[in-house]
Amino acid sequence: xxxxxxxxxxxxxxxxxxxxxxxxxxxxxxxxxxxxxxxxxxxxxxxxxxxxxxxxxxxxxxxxxxxxxxxxxxxxxxxxxxxxxxxxxxxx
Length: 92
Hints:
Elements: H1 2-7, E1 14-15, H2 37-40, H3 46-55, E2 69-70
Parallel strand pairs: 1-2
C-alpha cells in the first residue's frame, strides 16, 4: 500500500501500511531480508536494483507532493520487517 500511495497519491486520502517494507534498497541487509531476494530482487544485480528503486516507497518520496495521510504500523518482534526498517515519514 505504501508503494502505491507514493506512486499514485491522488488515489487515496488515508493509507495504513501494516508491517510494510518501506526501504526496498536496504531490506536484504537485515534479519531475514535476504530470503526475499528471489521474489523482490537484489541490489547486487543492476537490473534488479533499478526495479527495486523504481517502486521503493522511501526512495521515491518527492517534495511538494500532497501525499495521503499515513498511519505506519510496525511490529516490535517481526524479523521479516524489523521496526527500524520502517522509517518515520514527515510530510510538510
